[in-house]
Amino acid sequence: MDDSRSLVVLAFVAAYLAMCVGVGIWALRRTNSTRDFFMAGRDLGVMVTGLAVFSSVMSGFGFVGGPGLVYRMGLSSAWMTVVSPLAFCSVYYLLAKRLRMVAELRDTISLPDAVAARYRSELARLLTAVAILLGVVGYLGTQILAMATVLRDILNNVSFIPEVSLVACMAVACAVLVFYCVTGGILASVYTDLVQGAIMIVAAVFVFVAALAAVEGGLGGIVTTLVADDPEAISPWGTLGMIGSLSWLVVFTLGGAGQPHVITKLMMNRRIEDARRSLPVSAVGYAICSLLWLSIGLAMRALVIQGGHPELANPDEAAPQFLQLHAGPVLAGIVFAGLFAAIMSTADSFLNLGAAAVVHDIPRALYGRSLANELFWARAATVGLAVGSALFVLYSRQDLVALLGAFGWGTFAAALVPAVAIGFNWKRATAAAANVAIASSLVVNFGIELFGIVLPWGINGGFVALLLSMTLFFGVSLASAPPALDPDIDEVMDL
User: Fold this and answer.
1) What proportion of the chain, given as a percentage, has pLDDT over 70?
2) Cβ of 32: how many Cβ atoms within 10 Å?
3) Which of 196, 235, 437, 458 has the largest CB neighbor count within 10 A?
């Protein structure tokens, strides 16, 4: 590829990274307390909240991992992305009003604060914080790996820049990410989401058109080529098979209500009634951006089979390679800049959640108070979490961004869906049930990952952990005495 094209893409990305520095400095001046750092002052409007919620899901996981997974497994991952608008509906219906009212009544600045208020249990606060912290490491690693993968591909396509390793790109990604997050907190993330979400909705449509145009015969050519090569890839279940795909369906539909980077933003609305208007923004925006996830993966697989592109060394290169070589340079530059925005804002959300767990939630659960000078230690914890997540992803067994993301998503889903999504809608749920569900899910999820257990039929580990945690949650609740709820929490649950 000629340098002029590569330089256009690099210019867009450099401009975006420079903007990150500017946003971080701007947000620094507006971040004066831990409430600002963790909750954006609970002053977000409809569009900002709606775009922030969908952008935090469609991140490096979706823009890099999604096409890579389609390239490798065919339509199996459609059961992650196509069903996600249903997940947004369940999230808003189950939690939007209740979490926002609890945040108002108890002045909460984190999800574990809300859980502790619901169950009157500091152990529930502690276990929720630990679950968030452990899930953050896996999911944040996904964002850093995605950012480094894209950055390496961009730099290595400029002839006068020496070959850059993935580790070096991870170091650069971490440095920019840490500055952005330490200075701006969650405030920098949500306002970046506003711009990034709007850009990506439009760009996804253009990328979809470009993907169809890049393959001889358009959509028909893609389907014909893939069917001739491997009929299973283009079948409804893909190469993973029915059981494995359905396990993803459950985890990614029901599990959406357990994603702390999503549901925490529901506590930031300016008004409680804004959730009703934010839902269409989130669901429709994600549905449109799913076109990018599916079209690039299918088009790149067809191009390789037709001989229009060499075989990819790593499936995660599908999106970067397509944008670099088969899309217009301006469109590629815009999408890459939007991709970096998605990664940065989502990574910021995870760092924010992890920092809150370290400096606010865990100390409160253990000692009855958060750390002194909480804002300073929140920023220090942000640095440590970024470095730790980068090291985790370097030594992880998973080699695909999407599979790392699925592990993080499954960890959150299994731990938090029972305690939060069900617990905030069912008065009979007890603190003991919530604690057992969270603890058991973490043991199962991390046991499967650490010991490299391969489940039959391609079943997702998060599905097994979610099934177990929900069974225990209902069983322990029904076997225990009905819990006593604080009057304000009882009224919230009557909504």
Assistant:
1) 88
2) 11
3) 437
Alpha-carbon gap, residue 398 to 135, rounded angstroms: 15
* Domain membership of residue 21 as a residue range: 3-488
Average pLDDT over residues 245-250: 91
The DSSP output letter for 368 is S
The CATH code of the domain that includes 196 is 1.20.1730.10
pLDDT, the chain, mean? 83
Taking each helix axis from N to C end, the angle separating 166-214 and 374-394, rounded to the nearest 10 degrees, works out to 70
Interacting residues of 189 by C-beta distance below 8 A, sequence separation 6+: 52, 56, 181, 344, 345, 346, 348, 349, 352
Contact between residue 67 and residue 205 where contact means Cβ atoms under 8 Å apart: no
Q: Tell me, yes or no, whether 494 lies in a domain.
A: no
Q: What angle do CA 297, 408, 206 make, to 5 degrees?
A: 30
Helix axes 401-416, 431-450, angle to 10 degrees: 160
171 token code pair = 């170091």
Is position 311 within any domain? yes
Give the global pTM.
Answer: 0.83
**Dihedral angle of Cα 250, 413, 275, 197, to the nearest 10 degrees:** -90
In a domain, 493, yes or no: no
Distance of alpha carbon 442 from alpha carbon 431, whole angstroms: 17
DSSP string, 310-351: PPPSSGGGHHHHHHHHHS-HHHHHHHHHHHHHHHHHHHHHHH
Tell me the per-residue pLDDT of 285-341, one tens digit each, with 9 for 90 and over: 888 888 888 999 999 999 999 998 899 888 888 888 898 888 888 888 888 877 777
Question: Which pair of structure tokens corresponds to residue 318?
Answer: 């599908």
For residue 356, give both structure tokens: 């809150």
pLDDT of res. 396? 63
Provide the number of structural domains found in the chain: 1
H/E stretch holding 403 reads helix 401-416
